[in-house]
Structures are given as structure tokens and as C-alpha cells.
Here is the input.
Amino acid sequence: TFKTAMAKFSGPGGLIKAGRELAEALKPENGRGLMILMTDAVISHDGRYPLQKMFAAMQEVLGPNVGLLGGNAAYGNKPVYHNDTITTKAIVGLMISGPMKFKIVQEPGKVKISPELTVTKLAKPNEIVELDGKPWKEAYKKHLKDYIKPEEIEAAIAKGGGAFGRIGGLFPYAIVKEHGQLYVRLVHGLSPWGKGTNLPSECYDLKVGDKIVLTKPADDQVACVRNGMKRLNTGVPVENPSNKLFLLFPCQSNSFLLAQRDRRTKKNLRKEFFEAVLGELSEGDSAFGFMPCGEHCSPYEPDKDEKVGEARYHQLSYPMGVIVTEKE
Here is the structure.
């Protein structure tokens, strides 16, 4: 069965209440289901919007057997609509429930470029001063030297700035180089390899003693999609499966689905992406989704987990799900 609803909020302070209202409206009768959650109206990179607390409130209402999967548009404040209402101040959900099995995986689109680093001094919750007892700049130079020239690191630190803002003192950042362009990115290593999540300003306050890892985007993003599809195709316990519906919300994919070709290798990335997806589909299966800029999911693998995992906000990752029903 399918059920949809919208919950409005007036500003950051109303987001948790809206999440609860949406969960109450869509809570399945049998307590098991999968919710597709669209949060395009939420400015996800703005720490005032408590997305992580909203997820927790929703899961408290929905219970341990309902999964969340979805994402939002770039930087939020984009309209969503439900029936005859369109607004930039609401979240929208679709609940799929009934006699079906589902699986949700979160395939990281990034790789570690440092060992775990211990936060040893903070100026305030998310302002790192020292890592492993040394100034944070030393750790960055040490672990990024194989990826970026020392003078480029110095220039980036001196300039401060990049894809998401000022390096260093405000949030933990990693510097990465893509297609010859220097970027300053958030440290995504807080999830899934360490404690916390991808946007500590919004979802998790760092503490002295926490472990973080510096990361960079994976060189082969199509492989991330392929790995996720293969994971979805195993371990869903349905004796006589009908057609499967794959749900994909791949953040990093917009870089190759829109650009089509890798500027370094000249590969047709769009073609490879669809081959990775279609190669895992059986006759009658279908794939559906959109390319978010900020995505979320609550991982659940029924062959391993007794209940769905904690919903988390991610970036540079591939939340993916599959729904399977028994043949009639």
C-alpha cells in the first residue's frame, strides 16, 4: 500500500515538530514499511536546521521496523508539493508498506586518506584546534602530502575557503584535488568509519577524544554504484520474489550523469553508470530515484539486522534501497 503526506514548518525551530507530524500521518498499521522522505525545502548545509534530531523524532514515532530513504536539493529552500499544495516550507513523505521485504544500504562515495585522528583540543564543539596533540594544520599537511603539493596545502590554509566555507577553525575539513581543481571539503570520515556523521555542525558536536578520518572522493564513483547494487541484490529473504523496485539517491552521481565524460580518463561515465545499474536488474525489475545534494538513509540489511539502523544525513554517498514482494 502507498500513502503520502506533507508536514509544514515555519523555520528551523519547527522542523522536529514537522517530522513528528509527518511520521504520525504515515505510520503503517503493521509497523513495517519504507518511507521515501523528500526534504528539498530544508537548507541542509545550514547548522540551524536540526535534520539529525528530526530523523530521531521520526524514528521514535515510526518504530524499529520502518526505514527512511531520500534526500534534498542543493542547499535547500526548494519547493515541494503534495496534491494541490506547493511550498518551500514543508517536508513530504511516501510510505510503502504491506506484505513486502526491503533492504537499505549506504555505499560511501569516498575513501580514507588518513588513519584515525584523535581530537585533542577544541575551541568550541566543532572548532578543532589540535589533532593527536598537534595543531590541526600539521595533521592536514602530513596526511594530504600524497594528494596535494605542500604549497597548495599552504595556499588553501592561508586563503581559507572552498566548496563549503572556511578551512580549519570552523569545521574539520579535508582538502582534495579533482580534475586539477583544488577543493576544501568537509571531513566525511565521521561516517561510516568513525563516530558521528558527515555534518558535525548540524548532526553531531565533536568532543575531545573523538576520532575523525580525513577522506577524499573515491576515484571510481561508478564502482560505488555497482557495489551498492550488488549488495542490494543479495540477502533479501523472499522465497518466490516478484519484480524488484530499486530506489537510488546517489549524491555524487550528478557529477558524472550531467557531465557525461570524465575529463581525466575521457570515459563515458553516464553510460557506465547505467550499465552498473541495469546490469543488476532482472527482467521486469525497475530503478527509480533522483540526484540529491545531501542524502539520508537508515541502513537495514534483513539478513544481518534485527531492526533498521539510525537514520543519518550523508554527503558524497550512495543511499540505495530495494523493495521485493512475493509472487501471487
The chain has eight helices and 20 strands. Residues 160-203 have pLDDT under 50 and may be disordered.
